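Worked example

This section walks through a single chain of length 107. The input is the sequence exactly as stored; nothing has been trimmed or padded.
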Amino acid sequence: MGALPAHMERMRRHPDIAGEVLRLEYTAMSLNPNTKLYGRKPLLEMFDPTQPRDRACLEAFERELDMPWALYHVRRLFLVTEDGRRRPVKRSTERVDLGRPHQLARR
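Given that input, the structure is written out below as tokens.
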């Protein structure tokens, strides 16, 4: 977390790259809400839309999202041993559909 302020400043200097970074975290969190890049808050919440430099990053993020989206069926199987110890989680992701967000939201 000590590097976060420097990372935020770099993203503000390069908003197009910030848009990509925000999309990557957003995509990862869509599959698993616990996959934030920094701490407990997603990067998206660390930008203030009232600040011009932050707004540029958020606009770049919106441009990144302007593409076809995929809808996935995500499954996780949590296994334990007979004596109650956790085993590695089994995961499966299957793409169900491809389209625009408003089309996929109906599904």
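What to look for: The CA atoms of residues 19 and 60 lie 5 Å apart.
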